[in-house]
């Protein structure tokens, strides 16, 4: 409670906002609210890694490597090592991107070869 007996949410503001000149002997009460944002938890890309593992693993082993790094990222997140989880998650994302690109190029080449013959 403040000195006037009001709860902090309903403190009446004295003075005017349009004018910065306050009345003599009257103070303006301003309440500040701070909001702390919690950092976003790191992503482990486990679903994308599973898709890369099952669908693009015959092309190369990038899907398996991405799945391993995704599992490591999830384990690090569970034990509370957020920096390690970010590192492993970033590596898993890069491997997933490469696995997706390589698999897409292989499918495109197969369609082009099948269309030509």
* Share of helix, binned: 40-55%
- Please indicate the percent range of residues in DSSP E strands (runs of 2 or more): under 5%
Mean pLDDT: 81
Return Rg in Å.
29 Å
Written as H for each helix and E for each strand, in order along the chain, the element string is HHH
Q: Per the principal axes of the C-alpha atoms, what is the gross shape?
A: elongated
Q: Which residues sit in consecutive blocks of at least 5 with pLDDT less than 50?
A: none
Structural class: mainly alpha
Report the strand count: 0
Give a structural overview:
The structure is a single chain. This protein has a domain at 46-116. 55% of the residues lie in helices and 0% in strands. It is built from three helices and no strands. The longest helix is centred in the last third of the chain and has 35 residues, at 82-116. The termini are far apart. Belongs to the CD225/Dispanin family.
Which keywords apply here?
elongated; 117 residues; 0% strand; mainly alpha; 3 helices
